[in-house]
Amino acid sequence: MATSEDVEMEPDAAEVRRFTVELEFIQCLANPDYLNYLAQDGHFQDETFVNYLKYLQYWKKPEYSKFIKFPQCLSLLDLLQEAKFREELVNIPCTKFIQNQQMQLWRQHFRKRATLVNSTIKKQGDQIKEEGKGK
User: Fold this and answer.
1) Is residue 106 exposed (0-12), middle (13-18) or buried (19+ Cβ within 10 Å)?
2) Who contacts 84 (Cβ-Cβ below 8 Å, separation ≥6)?
3) In whole angstroms, what is the distance from residue 119 CA to residue 135 CA?
4) Ordered alpha helix ranges (H), the chain
5) Mean per-residue pLDDT pooled into runs of 10, the chain (135 residues)
6) Of the candidates 108, 113, 89, 30, the residue with the CA atom closest to the CA atom of residue 65
7) What's this model's pTM, rounded to 2 decimal places?
8) Other beta carbons within 10 Å of 80
9) What is d(CA 132, CA 126) in angstroms, rounded to the nearest whole number?
């Protein structure tokens, strides 16, 4: 049986929905094409929208950021606090530059990861060989 304390601690449906919508939106900020769309559609000139972007900075706190799958969205959220950056996003070359930077970062990450995985596999293989020699 649920106690009154249990009921108070459970988030209601509206809170869960708000959390989900904000999480989805903040992760969309990792998409430069979406940022370009927002800029071209005039959202960055809307003071209410800009204030909403300021409000979303709470997602940088660890208790919220742990739910984010595309952490680059937090860097872009920081950049979106700057009016000049928001103005530049209307230009497709700016969007393409951001995309290129993301691709380079991902390539570098996957190369490092592959190197780490390969070295771990080699070490494990060497350990197995050493164990086999001892028998």
Assistant:
1) exposed
2) none
3) 25
4) 4-9, 13-28, 32-40, 47-55, 62-65, 72-79, 83-88, 92-133
5) 53 89 96 95 96 97 95 94 95 88 76 77 76 69
6) 30
7) 0.69
8) 23
9) 10
